[in-house]
Amino acid sequence: MKISRRTALLAASSAALARPAFAEKSTDTLRIQFNDAVPNIDMYFNSQRTGLILAHHCWDMLVHRDPATFESKPLLATDWKLVDDTTLDMNIRQGVKFHDGSPLTAEDVVYTFNMALNPESKVSVPSNYAWIDKVEKTGDFAVRIKMKKPTPAALEYLTMVCPIHPKAYREKVGPEGFATAPIGAGPYKITRNEQGKEVVFEKFADYWQGSPKTASIKNLNVRFVPDIATSMTELQAKKVDWIWNINPDLFDNVNRIPFLTAVAQESMRVGYLSIDAAGRSGADNPLTKVKVRQAIWYAINRKEFADKLVGAGSRVPPAPCFPSQFGCDADAAVKYDYDPKKAKELLAEAGFPNGFEVEMVSYVQPTSWGAAIQNYLAAVGIKVKINQLQVSPAITKAQKGDAPLYMASWGSYSINDVSAILPVMFGEGALDNYSKDPEIEKLLKDAGNTSDKDVRLKAYSQVIKIATEKAYWLPIHTYVNRYAYIKDLEFKTYPDEFPRFYLAKWK
To answer: Is this prediction's pTM over 0.85?
Structure first.
């Protein structure tokens, strides 16, 4: 007998109601589950959103961003001054301790940036730090950041992707030892780290006073469970307190369960389809033909996808960036309406009247989203074989150039500037660049070498025009995060896709 998902959900919730009240609130432990395992929680060697979220609890950055206003505020840096277009002076907060009790000084700041800038370190996303020339100590608690070029988004990068590491400890244990037993200066210290399985945090008793990140809940127990259905079952059975990215069709059902609540929040993440225009996956790839790529753009009903599959306010980004980002010029983008007839005509003109077969690598959940893309393309004759992988292996395969089509997402590290997305997807030498368009690469380089707002806008608009005209990288929808958690938890969502457990409280 086949049981529907909704019936199973409600049955499980009824069973859970018969269980005793939450025990973990009494032990001051918030039990959290994510679906994508993080191989390295050190932000410099991780590009997964889950890893970034956890890192922001263990480490502090130089700058803090108010999650409601996006205003830059002091954190490890008490103040800063832009001396000239490429020089930023910062004073470092005194009295801050790392989790091993050692003091944080300018030495640690300089060491951290030197590590990130060293090519031998092989950080995950070099473009996050490529704007920095060098960082030097100007006092025991003062540093100077010299930029290679004017970088208007410098504070955004220092806020989101530049945690400060302890020099003495990391030099002692080495990169591998640090990945296994990391130490930061954030509101929580890591007491157990089973890579890819579980991370246990404990509130840091000596965390500096006055921080906007001061934690309330004592313990965070984070587990990685790849199957969202398993996480959902454990939430209903009161074995976990918080999960996210639940399937849209479960959202209303969760809110019918007396002890649970579900909320939806659009994020800065863009779901996309990368198309191998450069022939990285094989020179005989039909995707190298512009009419084939344009056919794919016409074949996919993005509005239907956003409205019906994603829902809850998801939008179709007209340009290959998130609409609020500086430089994301929607007016410059060439528009493609849903038109399967036009798609078939273009395929015939390109020499594929009967379509062709192609592989699509994806880590996207739910898998029904990938199946929707498969069905849209099948309707015009393109037969897609989906290679569904976990997040980390999918990223690795795509960055090696082995993904003719690649269905993925990019959250720009929540940096509200297109410099955090366009160079990643189209920039010279970028691992995710499947267009290899020299004109776009030059425009991005020009835009990255100036702080002139008008010059940047003009260059980015040209990039968007060319990229959409040649149908390189298809923005499908904005993401909507759906959170499900116990009603005993006071938890607030924000549009930058960073769950802040240090702001969470028990009711």
So the answer is: no
Domains in the chain: how many in total? 3
**Do 199 and 136 reside in the same domain of the chain?**
no
Per-residue pLDDT of the chain (507 residues; tens, 9 = 90+): 333 444 444 444 434 433 334 447 889 999 999 998 888 999 999 888 999 999 999 999 999 999 988 899 999 999 999 999 899 999 999 999 999 999 999 999 999 999 999 999 999 988 899 999 999 999 999 999 999 988 888 999 999 999 999 999 999 999 999 999 999 999 999 999 998 899 999 999 999 999 999 999 999 999 999 888 899 999 999 999 999 988 888 899 999 999 999 999 999 999 999 999 999 999 889 999 999 999 999 999 999 999 999 998 999 999 999 999 999 999 999 999 999 999 999 999 999 999 999 999 999 988 999 999 999 999 999 999 999 999 989 999 999 999 999 999 999 988 899 999 999 999 999 999 999 999 999 999 999 888 889 999 999 999 999 999 999 999 999 999 999 999 999 999 998 889 999 999 999
Pair 387, 251 in one domain:
no
CATH number assigned to the domain comprising residue 14: 3.40.190.10
Question: Within this chain, do residues 201 and 150 fall inside the same structural domain, yes or no?
Answer: no
User: Using an 8 Å Cβ cutoff, are 473 and 427 in contact?
Assistant: no
Q: How far is CA 340 from the centre of its chain?
A: 32
Helical (H) or strand (E) element with 346: helix 340-349
Whether residues 495 and 467 share a domain: the answer is no
Asked if 467 and 436 count as a contact pair (C-beta separation under 8 A), the reply is: no
- Tokens of residue 382, six digits: 């393109």
Domain span including residue 14: 5-44+175-264+481-506
**Sign of the CA dihedral with 365 first, then 36, 501, and 417 last:** negative
Give yes or no: residues 149 and 254 share one domain: no
Question: Which of 112, 141, 168 is the C-terminal boundary of a domain?
Answer: 168
Q: What is each CA distance from 445 to 88, 227, 430, 448, in whole angstroms?
A: 21, 41, 12, 5
